[in-house]
Each structure stands twice: as structure tokens, then as C-alpha cells.
User: Fold this.
Amino acid sequence: MIRWLPLAALLALSACSVAPFKTESSASSAGGEAAKTTGSAPQPRSTTGEPIIEPEPAQVIEEPPPAVLEPPAPRPRPKRPPATLTPASEALVAQARAQRKKGDLPGASVALDRALRIEPNNPLLWIEMGQLRMDQQNYPQAENMGRKALAMSIGDDSTQSRAWELIAQSLRARGRNSEAAEAMERARAAAPR
Amino acid sequence: MVAEPVNSGFFPSPRYSMARRKRSAGSRSRLQHGFVVLGLLLTLAALVMLAVLNHRVTKQFEGRRWTLPARVYAQPTDLYVGQQLSAARMAAELEGLGYISLEKPDRPGTFRRKGNELRVHVREFRFPDEKQAARELRLSFADNAITRIRDAGGKDVPVVRLDPLLIGSIFPIHGEDRIVVAPEEVPALLPAALIAVEDRKFESHHGVNPLAILRAAFVNVRAGQIEQGGSTLTQQLVKSYFLDSRRTLRRKAEEAVMAMILDARFEKTDIMNAYINEIYLGQEGRRAIHGFGLASQFYFGKPLAELDLPEIAMLVAVVRGPSYYDPRRHPQRTLDRRNLVLRVLAEQGVIGAEESERAAKEPLGVVEAGGRTGGYYPAFLELVRRQLRRDYDEADLTEAGLTVFSTLDPLIQRASESAVQEELQRLDQSKRKAAHGLEGVVIVTTPQTGEVVALVGGRRSGFDGFNRALDARRPIGSLAKPMVYLAALESGRYTPASLVDDAPVDLKLPNGDRWRPENFDKQVRGTVTLVRALTQSLNLATVNLGLDVGLGRVASAFEQLGLAEAPPELPSMMLGATNLTPIDVAQMYNTLANGGFRAPLRAVRAVIGEDGTPLKAPQLEVSEAVSPEAIYALDRMLTEVMNRGTGRVAKNQLPAGLVVAGKTGTSNDYRDSWFAGFSGTHLIVSWVGHDDNSPTGLTGTTGGLAVWTRLMSTIPTSSFEPLQPEAVDLRWIDYFSGQETSPYCNGSAISMPFAPGTLLEESETCPPSTAPSLFEELLGIDRDSSPEEPPVGQETAPEQAEIP
Assistant:
């Protein structure tokens, strides 16, 4: 019984603090606030990344939107620790690298397929696979592996940086130098210092 | 007798001139002359016959060595520290691979388990990247996981493969399947036993054994029918080459001559080896089991080299008549003959009498056909064959001795087969007459890599018939709806909270017909949110949305997700009037399950040639097909289908807390019942229907989803937890009104993603600022954190709304 006493006290305390207060809600956080003050329309992105004007907003807005300012930034999100490999996939990655060095690309492919079966959601393995595709001179797939790694490592700066580096390599290999430079810039920006 | 006139014909004889004078002598000479010519012709004919037979039999004998069907293996099981695998399940898996439990596991193919410790002697195996030597491993387990792997020397091993399960071969249309074994893979007992039982003079005769033929003829005459064959092993081999069981005299003579030719031209050991690889030993559907290598897998689920005395004796017993002595259908008859073989072996001194008696006490030990071991999966093999046909000729596959490493996961394949069979049997017993005798399909993939890990083409899975998974083209019903919502989200004009009209549709089609679709329950709901329209599979809201987005965009969404060709731009396409195969559906939904990355489905990981060189095989490929924001929103909406929509019944059977997403599909008049849905690591597509396309009386929920749930709840899998893209904020909205609300209002608040700065109307009855109740505060729900998880609250009663 005595164990319930602190809980009861807490209960009483929280009862006092509840209801009439208006605490900060999720809606009035940074992004939402900015949008309201500028009064701009929502800015969804098209697949090409260019902002497009929404012709028919989801919710009716009375006044016409004023000149478009900076698109609002999403709410800052927590960072994640860098991805790591389990001992099993680490051994397989080491094996794949040794095989690549010897020029045994099919062998490396088998080793990485095994690792991906063990950890399909580990972005580091997708970066390894991308590097193998570089060796195989399959540059578009090298880039795609990099993009897959990017999508899987949101919030993990060090992995994002490595994925951008891979993308930069694959672009450079295809002579798309300015895009490669941009990707390299993103790799540097993401790199944890 | 014939020899003399032939010789005299070649050389003019002095008697020749005398023949002119004596008339009688002259006619004799003409007669003689006729004999000479006839003899010449006969000899010529015999020589030609001999040459023809020689050519035919030699071609077969030498050619057969090179006509090896491609062997197809399942994925090997990787063992590593941390793997979720109990000692008991590992032991079961080893038994599935034909490993036997021994007190001292001192040879390949044996193991011993003592509680949480397991010692296994792994077989040698040539993997595509390296030849793994046979080796001993010691594994420790705790809490249903591997905690340590060491080799015989005590050194830690980070990861190691078991030899994979052989799942069949790609054999030619005439249906002969075989696994060719080299002489060194054959236990010495086998040829000895064959000689003792079938052909005791094998080592000394010249291909035929006239005495044995006479003896057999005598026995046959006495018995009044053909009972005992006097054929030598060589004759049996010849007979098997030409697949002709007619027992005419002419065939017998031809066979005898060919046997003599073989005997003259080749070594006895070569003939014995050809026999071991050629002889017919069983049948499974249209698949003929040839050779002891495959028969060993077929009957015992393990390699020939590992067979023991009673097992070898049984195979030798089966040689005499694989259908009469079928150990599965006639176990007692086969057992009697096996024991007869054992007695003969002891009589002939091949084995000791004691050994023979002991072996005779053993059971047959035959594994279930296509059951626990030595699986044979024709539907999956067909997918392998079609994928390989892109790079290889049919002849390469059926003759060149390739080894194919496939993506099949035997555990999931067996679970899939049982899920289909059990659910269809349950429906057979239901009161609904239309749901009796249904057919079913299941396809399972791992979405990240696009690997097909299981494929069931019908309820009789071991049967090589119509492969519905690949070839049944059926209307997909509401499985088409996510494509409409994807097109809407990608247009940038819609969010999950946008409102659409669930109002009557009346369209004039180009051909003059009118199209008036209805909701499943014939109700009209007015203005609904996008998320609700998809979750409850509302037909009218979906059609109005799709018409606004544009049919062109909707059609290209199918293509975006991986369908080879966009469907025709007809309004009915939005409600799934399009006919697609289950594998087409799996390809599209794999993209939904893979965060918008398209990964071409593959059933093959690697191919090696007969000499071990790596050959061309489909490679892992991905491409970003959908914007990350749109796919994230769509996937969260598909998760709601399982929380409160047409898929919610699955919750009760699935493991608690497992997050899944998916969509039901029902075609017109309940002809097809579909479900396509995924966890974090598996996509399962299931279809239930009749082959003759008659109504089933089932919706996607009562048919396809039932199979899906049964399967998803039995396989080891993990939650679907897509990572939130950078340019997205999660906000709480009301499921019904789309207004921004607080997680603490009632069960209708759901968390959905929005582009930063999206304006949302605030709920008046329960604004976003609503504080948690006392109860929730106590539970420590943090209101400032992202609303990832729905709050604790009562479920809203969902509306029943499955739409054809």
C-alpha cells in the first residue's frame, strides 16, 4: 500500500497542472509557425525537387497567397547514432572487399547478398553494394545504391556523408562533373566534425 | 557356312569354265551365285545395322554425360552469432537437410545436440564463390539465439553457411530429372549390390548373358508370363536409353546387339557408372526420377554418399520395378523385397550374415514426398526457369550441368504451402457452397532486395500443373486503389487530410456506355478524408479523386511501381478492372513495401557452370520510383487499413505490436479475393478464387486476407517502420474531418505526414492544444515528442466497407 503513496501525490499534482493551461502544441512548432506568419501556401515538392505551386490546396484558404518566400523548414529532428555492422556482416563485408581486390566481383556479390539477407536495413551494406557496382562499372546502379542508403540513414550524418560520396563517385564516372561536385559538397556538409 | 561362298565370290574359281559345259552344274553354279549375292547383301545389311546401332548407342552413352539438367538450390542458411534460432529448430533444420543425429558426429552429414550445445559436421559444398570444405562446428545457444560458433580447434567463426537444400532441377519437357554422381561419390556397396542382385556375371560377360536369358525364358514359360528378366545391367542401361518398354523380339535383339557393342567399346566401370546415373527409380507427377543420385534425395533427402546399408538395399530393390516397389505406396512389399536383397547380399558374401540381419530390422526410413526433406517446388522452379531463359537457351538449362543458387527460403515456402492448404480446407468446410474447392496463390518477397522467397501456384503445391502465381490473369479489384492515391499524393495537390467527395458517379464512356459504380455497401458518405477513403476502400471517393488527378497519371502510377505496361486509361481501371497476374501485383506492391524503390523481383542469385566458373545471373538492382514524401504518406495510410480499415481483423491473429500495411481486393461478383500487404521484412501477396472464374462469395478480407494473416503470423518477421523523410512533419489529424487535432481527443486522431508549412484547419471540438487527461499524463505520454504512436484510446468502430 505504501508504494502507492508517491503515485497518489503525483496524481494530485498533475490534476492541478492540467486542462486550463495552454501548453505548446505540436502544431505551433517552428514549421507551422513560420507558415502562419508568412501566410504562404503549402509547398509540396515535385519529384524533380522543384517547388511547384499548389493549384488546389487541401484546405480552402481565403486570401490569395503573397509572394513566395523561403519554403518553410521541417521541424528539426533528433540525430541518430552512426550505423554499425554486426560481426557477421562485418566478416562478410571484409570478405567482399578482399574479393573485390582480387577482381573476384561475382564472389563479392555473393558475400554482400548474404549480408543483406542478415541485415537488409543496414545502409552501410547498401553503400558496399554500391561500391561493388562501381567496380562492375554499373554506375547508374552505384548511384541508386547510394540513394537507397540515403533513404535508410536519415538522421545519421556520417552514413549520409558516405552515401553522398558514393553518389558523387558514380556521377563523376559518368562525366557529370557539376552534379558530382554538388554531391561531394553535400557529403562534406553532412560529415560530422 | 556362309563364309565359304562369300569368299569364293570374290575370287574367280577354276570350276567356273566347267559350269558352262554341264547344264546341271551350270544351274547349280547360278544357284551358288545367287547365294553369294544374297550373302553379300545380308552381310552388308548386317554391317549397316551394326553401324546404325553402334552410332545410336554410342551417341547416347557419350552424350548422356553432358546432358545434365541444371540443379537448383534454395538459399543456404547462414549461421552467425545473434541469429534468432533455437537449438531445437537448428536440429530440425539439419534433419531437413538429411543430417542424422549420432552420438559421435565424426563424418559429414551428422550432428549431435545436447540441450543448448550442438555439434555438427557440415558437408563439403561448392558455393558460387568458394568451395566450403567439410568441417566440424560447435554451436552454443541461449534464449532462442546463437551465442557462439567455434570450429573444431576452438576458434570463433563469425559466419558460416550450411549446405543448401536441393529443390529440384530444370529438366527437359520429356520429364527426366537426374543428379549425376561421379564414381567417387558412389558408396562401394552399391555397384557390388547391383551385381549380386541383378547381374552376377557382369564383370565377365560380353554385354549379354545367354545362360541367364535361357533361364529366364524357362521360368517364364513355366509361369506362363514374363516375370523374370535375364537382362544384364548393360542391357537394362540400353533399354533405359531408348525409353521403349515394348518387349518384342526385335527390340530384344537390338538391345542385345547394342549391349554387346557397349561392352566391346567401353570399360566395365564406365558402364556401371552410366547405369547408376541413368536407371529409372521413381516418378513424381510428370517428373521421372532417374539415377541413384536423385533417387537418394527423392527417397531419403540426403546425398548418395551418405546412405547406409538398408537404404542402399532398398534402392537396389526398387530397380526391379519402381511403381510396383514404390516404398511410399507399397511399403510392406518394398520392405519384403529389400530384405530379400539383404539376404542375397549375405549369400553372395557381399556383406556379413549378421550385418544383413541387423539391416533387415531397420525401417525403410523413406521421407515424405515433397515434405520435410528433399523438397520439390515446381511452381517456384518455373519462375527460376523463366528468369534464366532471359540469359540462357533452354538446352543450356536442361543439359549443361549448371548449378543455380535460388532465393527460395524453404521455411517460408513450407509455411506458405500450409497456409494455402489449411485456409482452403477451412473454406471447404464452410457453409458457403461457392467457397468450396477454391484455388489459392501465395507469393512472398523480401522487399528491400526484391527476392522471391516463396511461391505457391495452387493448393496442390507439389503438383506440376497450371502455375496461377505466374499465369492466372485476374481483375485485381481494390488492389488498384493505392495507385490512385499515389498519383494524387505525387501531384502535390493532395495530402492525407484532403477532402474528397464520396458522391455518385455517372460517366459516359467513349463507347457510349454509362458507368455508374457504387460503394460496397451502396451507401454514400459525402465529404471524406483521403486517408479514410483508402482505409475503408470507398469506391466513389476513389473514382472522384482519380478523375480529378487524371486517368493518365493514375495509369502511369502502375508503371512507376513496376508494371511492365500501363493499363488502358479507362475509369474502371481505378477500381481494378485490370487483369493482372499475382507476380505483377507482387512487383508493384514490392515497391510500396520498399520505400518507393523499385527492385526487379528475382528468384536467382548466382549461377555457376559445371566447372565452377561464375556465369550470368540476375543482379540486385534498385531504382527510386516514387518521391520519398508521397510513398511515406501512402505507406502510413496503408498502415491505417490494418488499424481501422478493411484489414483490421488481422490484428487479432498477428503477434502483438507487429506493424503491417496492406490492401484488400475483391473483383466484381466476388470472383477474386486478394490481399497484398507487408511487414518490415516480408511482402505477401495472396489470391483466392475459382479456376473457372465463378463467384466465390468471398471478399478480400474473408479469403485473401485470411491466408495472408495465417502466413504472416507464422513466419519470423519484423515491424514495418519506414524512416520519416527529411522534408516532412508528422501531425495529428482527425480521421473523419481532416482537421488538426490533439492525440488526446478520442480514437479518431491519427498521425499523418505533411510538407512543412501545410495549412490545416484546426478542430473546434478538440483543438491541437487539448491537454492529456490525467490518466494519460500518469502514463507518461510526452506531448512534445513527435506523434509517432497513436495514443491509448478506444477504437472507433470502423465502418464495414469492402468494395468490389
User: Anything to note?
Assistant: Helices of chain A lie at 4-17, 30-38, 87-102, 105-118, 123-135, 139-152, 157-173, 177-190. Confidence is low (pLDDT under 50) at residues 5-68 of chain A. Residues 157-173 of chain A form the longest helix (17 residues). Chain A touches chain B through 74 residues (CB under 8 Å).
